[in-house]
Amino acid sequence: MEIKLTEGKKELFAVTHPFFKGEGYRFQSKRPVLYRKEFENFYVQLYLQFAIKLWNHYSGPFRISFKEVEKIILEIGIPTNSFEHIKNGDNILLTIHDIHAKDYMDAITKLNFKKLDSFRQWGHLIVDYAQGPGKAFIDTYSYLPNVLKEMDRLEAEGKNTNEILVGLADRRFRGLIISKLCSDPNFEEKVASCDEVFYNVPQLKDWIPYYNKLKERLKTVEPLYPYYKSV
């Protein structure tokens, strides 16, 4: 007998609601369905996705939205999104994500959501992640200079900063804003690197006016954090 999604959600939320409520998270039941917690300088968010017919339900890892970063992104804008849903208060822009939650994500894909107890198992996977690797992610990367350090590490190893930063071309906007806010001595080098991308990749021609606006805006941004380098 096929179970109803409402029954599955009841099992899931019986596990997740008490945990997240106890941690001070707010639950949003309308799309996007998510748990969100607000701090002084940032938000932490974990969203859930339900597929009524395909049974490929999903929950993301933690994502963090830094208020000072996303305020500038909203101000500058991007050519691919009007951000109306953000301006209306239906959602927030996100800055970084925990891309290293592979074990947690893989375990979810192995659940058989045609069985009711899989929803409760899903709930426990979410809570276990939130208490373990997810907490470590928040503890480390809710401090913006640590995000800059991770960006620099990825670039030094020839990796893509999308392993920490959210977005497509706009992740480069976020990278420059973070660099400036964190008193990065290599800020101008990062700008020059972005110049090479935005001014020389034909597919990004629509981004150039926004990128130029961002560079002008960054001239007025005052750093909020001292630069430090790990030994």
Describe what is shown at a glance.
The protein is α+β, with helices and mostly antiparallel strands.
Mean pLDDT: 93
**Low-confidence runs:** none
Beta-strand residue fraction: 5-15%
Which radius of gyration do the C-alpha atoms yield? 19 Å
- Major beta sheet, specifics? 6 strands, antiparallel
Order of helices and strands: HEEEEEHHEHHHHHHH
Which class do the helix and strand fractions yield? alpha+beta
* Head-to-tail CA distance between termini: 59 Å
**What would you call the shape?**
elongated
The helical percent reads 40-55%
Quantity of strands, as a count:
6
The number of helices is 10
Structure commentary:
The chain is of the alpha+beta class. 49% of the residues lie in helices and 11% in strands. The chain contains ten helices and six strands. Strands 1, 2, 3, 4, 5 and 6 form a six-stranded antiparallel sheet that branches. The longest helix has 18 residues, at 5-22. The mean pLDDT is 93.
Please supply descriptive tags for the structure shown above.
alpha+beta; 6 strands; 231 residues; six-stranded antiparallel beta sheet
Topology, pairings included?
Elements: H1 5-22, E1 26-28, E2 33-38, E3 42-49, E4 58-59, E5 63-66, H2 67-76, H3 84-87, E6 96-97, H4 102-109, H5 116-131, H6 133-141, H7 144-156, H8 170-181, H9 187-198, H10 208-218
